[in-house]
Amino acid sequence: MAPLIDETDYLVDVDDYDFFSEIDSKDNSSAPLHVTSIQPKHRRVSFSTNVTSHYVMSRDEYTAEEMKATWHDHPALRQMKNCARSDARLFESGVLAEGDDVSFRGLEARTTIGLRQKRQNRMNAYAAVFFEIDTQHDMGMTDDDAIADAYFNYSEPCLMAAQMIAVRDAEEAKNAMHSMKTDARFGASLLLNLAMPANLTTTPMSAAA
After folding, report:
1. Structure pTM?
2. Over the stretch 109-141, which tens digit does the pLDDT of each residue have?
3. Is residue 52 part of a domain?
């Protein structure tokens, strides 16, 4: 069965509804109906012959301190969401500008346009699922794969967009790490030269021997 409304997703995004209401007051457009069908892609899963097993602790085996150190609680998640939404609005208003010390990465979905697009994508996916369920009900049949494919037709573009952003971010992170290592090597060499007396020269070990 395709995922319809995930409970955890609802809990995480419940704070956005007040902002969605603000958008609704300015935009009365509705989600487009699911009028086109896309041929489902045949997907399959393969398993490697080499299997490595790793022991994973059960949640019941964690102490209270370990539980607190491992997972965020609901107040902490709400605080992070509020901070992210506040930063996004500061960016939109021009109070914050992206620079070396400030990054807009990860806040795209918290802007007015990003929130509207996120909601539209979700509504399209839900509408496709419910349309498929109603169609199957009218035909007196049940096809879970068709329901999953209806959801996937709208979730796949979002997944591909997220993967493209992830590849871009990974490349930027790799370049930044390379730059930091280069700066660190240059700084260490500079400090060594400053600490070395001017009349002191280094002699290769082979020549000294």
Report:
1. 0.48
2. 888 888 899 899 999 999 999 999 999 999 999
3. no
Beta-carbon contacts of residue 107 (< 8 Å; ≥ 6 apart): 84, 87, 88, 91
- Best CA proximity match to 136, nearest among 124, 148, 153: 148
Torsion of CA 72, 78, 84, 87, to 10 degrees: -130
How many distinct structural domains can be found in the chain? 1
**C-alpha–C-alpha distance, residues 5 and 27, integer Å:** 24
Query: In terms of C-beta density within 10 A (0-12 exposed, 13-18 middle, 19 or more buried), how is residue 207 classed?
Result: exposed
CA distance 87 to 97: 10
CA distance 151 to 145: 10
The first and second tokens of residue 126, run together, are: 């839900």
Is 156 inside any structural domain?
Answer: yes
* pLDDT per residue as tens digits for the range 12-36: 454 555 555 555 555 555 555 554 5
Q: Where in the sequence is the domain holding 93, given as residue range(s)?
A: 7-36+69-195
